[in-house]
Amino acid sequence: MSPARPRAVLGTVPLYAPDPTPVELDLSDNVNLWGVPPSAARALGEPLAAQPNLYPRSDPRELRTALARYAGVSAAEVITGCGSDDVIDGALRAFAAPGEKVAYSAPSFSMLVSFARVNGLQPAPVPFRKDGDIEPDALLAERAAITYVCSPNNPTGTGVSATAIERVVAESEGLVLVDEAYGEFSGRTAVPLLARAPQLLVTRTLSKAFGLAGLRVGYGLATPEVVQVLEKVRGPYKVNVLGERAALAVLGDDLPWVRRHVEASVAIRERLRVALAALGLRALASAANFLCVPVPDSAALGRSLLGRGIKVRVLRALPGIGDAIRIGVGPWDGMERLLAALREVSR
After folding, report:
1. For the chain, which residues make up each domain, given as ranges?
2. Is the per-residue pLDDT at 1 higher than 70?
3. Predicted confidence band at 116 (pLDDT cuts at 50, 70, 90)?
4. Over the chain, what is the mean pLDDT?
5. Which pTM value belongs to this model?
6. Among the four residues 30, 72, 257, 262, which has the most C-beta atoms within 10 Å?
7. CA–CA distance, 290 with 270 (Å, rounded to integer)
8. If one looks up domain 18-36+256-346 in CATH, what number appears?
9. DSSP of 225-291, one letter per residue?
10. Given this model, what pLDDT does residue 14 score?
């Protein structure tokens, strides 16, 4: 009997496998390094109260209502998922047929390309402008079934101007997917465009600013018609009972906690940028909770830091940038430890 044969395209899809080495200071995932909001900790203190022996609700209406209130839309304009990447993957399946294009500015969220290829779509990367903003003309010229904009962009952290997003949304022929996983840190959002843009989908997550990365709660914002299509491809029970319980607690009681730590992240990000510059490391401008720092050999630097108990994200040969490391921002004592290690490495 011959072995099962995977689709040929999977040979072009790398496995998403971040370095699993345990370290004392992990700055590689851009999560909330201050921890879990107090209300979520209380909600998770009695996990059996969430009845994990039962399936979650197939339509988490209470959670959709809470997310809608936070985002300033109606509950009918909200779809939930297992992280925002789940919503992105569903959008690619729902709004692009095999062989059609997904246009995006490169470098960007690595899983977008993997999702596109797995779904039989054609990734169509275009360069950023020299100032780090997206180039609407280049994106629109692809005439893609889906145009993806990561705002702020991952892995560079650069912000996207409202003018550029508005033009892409207004003139694109297909779905425009704006990924706002780091939107809380930028203070900008494309959500107000939903009122006049039925082709727009905004995705967000509670994994970053909200401190719930391990519970995998994401959501999308779109017209009710787009939401209904996404529900058909999403599959059931995408948000688990503990994730829903924690999310409701934070959205109901701890938004001030989230906002305080967003403000702290932004302030420490800029303080860290100045300190890195003093070491000769010029970080890219960032509107997120991390810094992308071009370096001559990211793999070697990553290994050196790992040997000192610190993990950063190693980025190789980024288009238009080259090698870089991505540093997630957290409490300043951790940043001081990183800076000390960088000084040692540079001696």
Report:
1. 18-36+256-346, 38-253
2. no
3. very high
4. 95
5. 0.95
6. 30
7. 10
8. 3.90.1150.10
9. HHHHHHHHHH-S--S-HHHHHHHHHHHHH-HHHHHHHHHHHHHHHHHHHHHHHHTT--PPP-SSSEE
10. 85
